[in-house]
Amino acid sequence: MLEIENARRVFFQGTPDEKVALNDLGLSLDKGDFTIVIGSNGAGKSTLLNAISGALRLDAGRIVINGDDVTATPVHRRARHVARVFQDPMKGTAAAMTIAENMLLAELRQNPARLRLGLTRARRNAYREQLSFLGLGLEDRLDTPVSLLSGGQRQSLSLVMAVSGSPDLLLLDEHTAALDPRTADLVLQTTLRAVNALGLTTLMVTHNMQHAVEFGNRIVMLDAGKVILNVTGAEKEKATVPSLIEKFSAKTDRMLLAG
Amino acid sequence: MQLIEAYIAIIPVTLSQSLLLSFLALAIMIPFRVLNFPDMSAEGAYPLGGCVCAVALVAGFSPLVALALAAMAGFLAGAATAFIHLRFRIHTLLAGILVTTMIYSLDLRILGKANQPLFNESKIFDHFAGLGLQPTPTKIVAAGLMVLVTYLVLQIWFQTERGIAMRAVGANSDMSEAQGINVWRVTLGSIGLAGAFAAFGGGLMVQSQGFADVNMGLGVLINALAALKIGEAIVGTRRMWQQLLAPFAGAIIYYQLISICLVAGLAPGDLKIATGVFVLLMLAGPELRRRKAPRAKARGNG
Q1: Domain tally for chain A?
Q2: What does residue A70 show for φ and ψ, rounded to 5 degrees?
Q3: Domains of chain B, residue spans
Q4: Stated pTM of the model
């Protein structure tokens, strides 16, 4: 479903601040894979997601989503394949617009806007049903501006918007990190339900090792812009937090010694 | 008593003026409020529309075609501002000022002189002569009809998928791009549309006053902004239909206020101060109303 080959991106090239954010990174995901991406700060997790969504162009390498080479495709055209939920609840929704209007915008990812009525009765009913899945009562507030929602409600809405239309690839960028523990858990549970129900190919970035062990069927560990660990299958089933940390330290120590 | 009579006597004239200039207020509202793209190129698009319209009329085009040409020229002016901002990342206001400055020279080239009177050329208002009304009421009917049609068309537009997508670009540009909206195309089209409305207003004004002048755009922007602010204060901005009504309602009320100032004895030269004070009051209003709240809180919200 997702093929990344030799992805390379260097920031501030040729200056003392030069940073290789993606260092010939390679990654391949199968359809339905729920992959957890972990790694320390500056490992390249966000850069990787930005490169996949198109917000950031690669210096070299190739990205193929669902058989479609999107390496040079602008963000708005990749939207057909990719949906994303950001860490910041403000980023994923249009605050000044209503819940229903935001839901409509999500629909435009796969069906570009045309000159026809936007919020039809049929659509409003469909949105009501999709939102009721959250159990937050948003289905009764279709005409409420999103700016009046709490952070958790906004993030839940972002999530429903992202999974609507079953995107080829769902990117979750530490999407529960800015929420209080209870809300974070609620959003996470909703995420798991949606991903499982729709069988979405998902990349979830997190700093929470416990989540990495508990959820998903793959773990990818990044360091210095490279995939240093790829845990799948039975190995993933057996993985524990200490075993991951041990592997992480071993890998990075070896790299330090080699470098 | 005499003052009130004098004021009432000029209501028809000020009303027709305000209807024509409401297109300019609309041309300010779209970039500022819908696109979140503070833009001043309306100040250039307005006289550009006037000059193009005048030249087209002199060349023998029909009044309607002349207006269409004016609107097209305005579209290009607005799109130029949007392009400068998008491509070179120049601040929207500066991009608009650049375009407006260059348009002044362009106006002189188009007109070939500083002023073009239009005596015998037919005007759009001639089409309404069949009503058998005096010139001023004819203008009111004609302009009122155009305002009504524009309002209704835009009201429908903003309920379509494309209209909602256009608002999304202003509400959250990055997010709208991630939802598959081509931000470049929408911005170019929308700021272009605003320019087209400003130029259309310029063309109408030229046909109404019977001449075009390269300096006709001087300071119109602040009038339009004042009209918009007043309209928003009165009809509100919560729903899209209110936001869309604000420039039209505001233009009408603003020109009545100006007319009261004139009747009350204010010298025409002092009008700019009056306009400035209006705008200032409208902008300062929310802050003044909040005075009762603790100072620190007011700062935080500002």
Answers
A1: 1
A2: -105, 10
A3: 2-217
A4: 0.91
What order of strands is seen across the sheet that includes strand A60-65?
A: A19-29, A2-11, A60-65, A68-69
Site from B156, B172, B186, B240 to mutate, A interface, most A CB atoms within 10 angstroms: B172
Q: Is A175 on the interface with B (CB under 8 A)?
A: no
Residue A21 is part of which domain span? 2-258
Whether residues A113 and B159 touch (CB distance < 8 A) is answered with: no
> pLDDT (tens digit, 0 to 9) for every residue of chain B, 302 residues total?
788 888 999 999 999 999 999 999 999 999 999 999 999 899 999 999 999 999 999 999 999 999 999 999 999 999 999 999 999 999 999 999 999 999 999 999 999 999 999 998 999 999 898 888 888 999 999 999 999 999 999 999 999 999 999 999 999 999 999 999 999 999 999 999 999 999 999 999 999 999 999 999 998 998 999 999 999 999 999 899 999 999 999 999 999 999 998 888 888 888 888 888 888 888 887 788 776 655 544 444 43
d(CA A221, CA A212): 10
Give CA–CA dist B167/B175, Å, rounded: 12
